[in-house]
Design a protein that fits this description.
Mean pLDDT: 92
Distance between the termini: 70 Å
Number of helices: 11
Strand content: 5-15%
CATH superfamily of the largest domain: Homing endonucleases
CATH class of the largest domain: Alpha Beta
CATH architecture of the largest domain: Roll
Strand order of the largest sheet: 1-2-4-3
Low-confidence stretches: none
Number of strands: 8
Number of domains: 2
Oligomer: single chain
Largest sheet: 4 strands, antiparallel
Order of helices and strands: HHEEHEEHHEEHEEHHHHH
Shape: rod-shaped
Bound molecules: zinc ion
Helix content: 55-70%
């Protein structure tokens, strides 16, 4: 099941009083596929959404409408019956001319109803990406007027969406994980909001750990490459001229590297009979590499 559907299922289970119910149903219908004097309709992949849409129409008009399954495995609810449409219009205070174009804010009566309205918009045209993948919540809106009105509803709340136009439709969206958490909670999907927060924390920790592991791995690789180069030079010296030919301050360090092939220069420094800094050790290895380079 998609994360969007999880959220929608939670939104459908939110208990609401009458004022909020009207605001939610209104938004659900208005931001669906069609909302005009000729037709109110939704087309959705999810049967539960279609059933809830039919429920909203029943609540406003008393009419029983069953979702139908389309050939493309989607679910459609469509009302074209004039009597039903006029009942819905009357309940929502809409005239023929105010249908569709803009939000009738009289249907968002109380502060609580703004949350319910957003819940309805999301049910109709919202999607949210699984936080494991990316942070993205959007409302896909059919007209500029409805996009503007949706932005206006968001003025009541803290997070501010962005809007973009895409091939004739308008996308009102959030890309910040904290904003998305807030929007989910505002709409009433509190459980999914918590899950969202949790997923983000887990992802952040995983990223930090991976960064650290990569960093440490890179350090280890560098150490091994350096030590191998030193070892090869020293093995050549041993073979060609022997350790006894080296000055005493290089001899001990050469023997240590010859025995301990993969330890870091810092560890070599700690093994010396007379203490030396790591850069002192580096310096002596450079000398040994130079000597080896000059041997035939
Ligand atoms: Zn309310």
């Amino acid at each position: 099941m998609s994360f969007s559907l999880d959220v929608k299922n939670e939104l459908l289970s939110v208990e609401q009083n009458d004022c909020c119910r009207l605001a939610r149903d209104y938004a659900f219908l208005l931001y669906g596929r069609a909302f005009s004097v000729k037709e109110i309709a939704i087309l959705t992949e999810h049967e539960a959404i279609a059933t809830a849409f039919a429920g909203a129409i029943k609540h406003l008009s008393g009419a029983e409408i069953s979702p139908e399954k389309t050939k493309g495995e989607k679910f459609r609810v469509s009302v074209t019956d004039k009597a039903v449409l006029s009942d819905v219009a009357e309940k929502l205070g809409l005239s023929d001319s105010s249908f569709k174009k803009r939000v009738n804010f009289a249907n968002i009566a109380e502060p609580c109803c703004y949350n319910a309205f957003l819940r309805g918009v999301f049910l109709a045209c919202g999607t949210v990406t699984d936080p494991e993948k990316e942070y993205h919540l959007e409302f896909s809106v059919s007209s500029k007027g409805l996009a503007d009105d949706l932005m206006h509803v968001f003025d009541e709340f803290e997070p501010t969406p962005k809007v973009t136009q895409r091939s004739g439709s308008y996308t009102v969206y959030f890309k910040n994980s904290a904003d998305i958490e807030d929007v989910l909670a505002i709409m009433g999907a509190t459980e999914n909001s918590m899950m969202y927060m949790h997923a983000k924390v887990v992802k952040d920790i995983r990223n930090t750990v991976n960064r650290k592991v990569n960093f440490e791995q890179a350090n280890i690789n560098r150490t091994v490459v350096a030590a191998t180069k030193q070892y090869e030079a020293i093995a050549k010296i041993k073979e060609k001229i022997g350790f006894d030919a080296l000055p005493p301050e290089l001899r001990e360090i050469a023997k240590l590297r010859y025995i301990h092939r993969e330890v870091s220069n810092a560890e070599i420094a700690s093994m010396l009979s007379k203490p030396l800094t790591v850069s002192g050790v580096n310096h002596r290895f450079q000398k040994l590499i130079k000597i080896a380079g000059e041997l035939k």
